[in-house]
Amino acid sequence: MGALAWLTPRRRSATPRSVLAGEAAAEAARKAEREAELEAEREAERAAKRRGERPEGAEEGPEEPEFPVVGDTSAAAFFDLDNTVMQGASIFHFGRGLYKRKFFDTRALARFAWQQTYFRLVGSENPEHMADVRASALSIVAGHRVSELMEIGEEIYDEYMASRIWPGTRALAQAHLDAGQKVWLVTAAPVETATIIARRLGLTGALGTVAESVNGVYTGRLVGEPLHGPAKAEAVRALAEAEGLELARCAAYSDSANDIPMLSLVGYPYAINPDSALRSHARENGWRLRDYRTGRKAAKVGIPAAAGVGALAGGAAAAVALQRRRR
Fold it and tell me: Which segments carry the region annotation Disordered (predicted)?
């Protein structure tokens, strides 16, 4: 497809592969959540033994925000990742880290840099562009062990991603956590990368694109298709059913019109740093808007009381980050 085609958002309906991708993402997220819960319980028991005490539950904060409703465990929050929680594309930052570790050459890096430049300038996720990014990523990780990429992902988060989290969006997620609700990332990024970011931010877990692996080694193929557009909605729907959530009481946050299917599922949709198409759709439908890219508040429609925390700290969007050659 030509460059002009990349600039034209397209609506797609859910396909059998979208449903498969969504269900696979939901299952992977729930598995990771169960493992994290078991590890947290084991760590609490170990800590209690060291202190000679019984483990205690977390204390509740002294104040309750107007929204989300404290104690409403039938609700949860779903956050898109790229340009919503993090400045830029997470897959690009991951690619920079892999390049530093000599996973690929400068030609492949240049391709990643162009993909990131396009993403930052256009500010939306075009299917053809995402397919190009997916092909690049799959070709790089094929033949590598999942455990190896997870270990490297932890290092890459510290090197390139931690400083790019939007404080305002982070405050929104924290408001849900403080209310006792689960908070999930929902992204086209690899589920392993998304899980690392979610854990570092203290979130419940992540739904992401599931890459096929056999005996712990990536095959270079996907399970279903990327978790993008309608597939995200299918993943949220599957997870909500498995968790017993009421979607009408849930919230979702995204910057892209491609996520309108996911946003439309919930009772509290938010447009965060929205592209022009999502901004228009949000205004037409009375959805909540918030823009952290310039420090100014977008049209304020039912923003939670806790949402303002760290809003001004979002700052201006950083210039395109191109990898500098290191000897």
Answer: 1-69
